[in-house]
Design a protein that fits this description.
By secondary structure, the protein is of the alpha/beta class. Helix content is 21%, strand content 28%. It is built from six helices and 14 strands. The relative contact order is 0.16. The structure holds nickel (II) ion and manganese (II) ion.
Amino acid sequence: MSTKLTWLGHSCLLLETDGVRILIDPFLTGNPMATTTADAVAADFILVTHGHSDHLGDTIAIALRTGATVVSNYEIVTWLMNQGVAKAHPMSIGGSHLFPFGKLKLTQAIHGSALPDGSYGGNPAGLHLFLKDGLRIYDAGDTGLFGDMKFIGEDGIDLAILPIGDNFTMGPDDSIKAVKLLQPKTVMPIHYGTFDLIAQDAQAWASRVKAETTARPVVLEPGQCVAVD
Ligand code: NI
Ligand code: MN
């Protein structure tokens, strides 16, 4: 089995593992970095870290078109079901569930989660995936640095996906601290470059990861995919 990861720009990722397509934070419409569209992207599951429009994105349209199951916190799932999404699975932070692709645990994130219409979107989350092929992926979602990343790291991380854009989330300095707490084998930056406010030099960030941590940095271009191992 192999797992393939494609960065679709901003925080949108497509994981293909064991024949299952997992779409994360599908902000495509209105995303200047997007390399595909809500009409074209495939999904069996859609994972939504929090309610902000640059993460919830096209979740409703894609779920209705593809019949994908949406997984998010209880408040967001309830809101989506009220919008007509039929297949959705509610979770909460600290909880794990075994899905066809493997186990997913929701982790804390320090951020907000209001939904686009102002509804309460529960608590923002990160995603810790324990895929069937043994691969462990941690997507921090939108968050600032927090010390409990140490405990998340103790559960094992092959690939950490971290925001580095600053302003709304961790910036490069705190992301280096996060790598030291999480101890992933590989680390990939997201949530940067989409807008001027979150512009970052990803190559300079990668040089720092190599110099200051034991992790291997992987910097993708939007639309680029990588085999994860
Ligand atoms: Ni956000
Ligand atoms: Mn965001």
